[in-house]
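ingest -> validate -> predict -> emit
validate: passed (alphabet ok, no gaps, 249 aa)
predict: started
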Amino acid sequence: EYIGRCRKWNVPPSRLHPFMRMKLLASWGAGVDLWWKPHALTGKPVLTCSHPDAPGSVITDAEYWEKDWGEEHPMDVDLDRSFFEQLQALNQIVPRAAFDSDTSENCVGGGYSRSVNTLMLFGTYEAKDSYYVFRNKNVDRVFDAVCLEHCQDSFSCAMSVRLNKCIQCFGSLDCMSCQFLFDARNCEDCFCSTNLRRRKYVFMNEQLSKEEYKKRMAEIDLSCSSTFDTWREKFLEVLRADTIFPEHS
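emit:
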């Protein structure tokens, strides 16, 4: 069946074992490193997301977008040659933008767009005033964030949408002023809990009154690293003991 499909699509069959191909497809390409690499024209070191051993040269992003590279290095398509051979030849003569970014200002990272005042951002679209963000979209003042969308003022969160003033929230939607949550929806002022829906003032999966919740939270200072680490360990215990994981998580 596989060989038949290759013939239908006119592509060569892979030489890799099927399990190895699955590993390659399922691998997580981090891409969150920066190196110094010589500038294509001046030879001076340029900070870039392109590995020093990668083929091709780099220039600054501003220099890259100033030119029409189709005019700089025109190349006719040769139907008698492999497409990938021609692409490789093009990659060797056309320099790459150092950060592989566009329409951004005062940013350092790789593969980002329409961002401003953000440090160490990778594969991110529309980030502002954020630090250490990876594969985010439309985030503002977030830190240590992975795969967030439309989130603000949040720290160390991942795989979530529309968070506001949250810390260590994962796989959650539409939550505000919450800490240490997993699989929560439409929650506000909840702490160290899982599988919540439209809840307020829940502390370690226990429903509290507003007054009792505020009293307990006043005793917790997450700006202290030892306190943060202690509660993070308790959160992991809750995840192991009392959590129902979504079918496709």
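The first strand starts at residue 35 and ends at 38.
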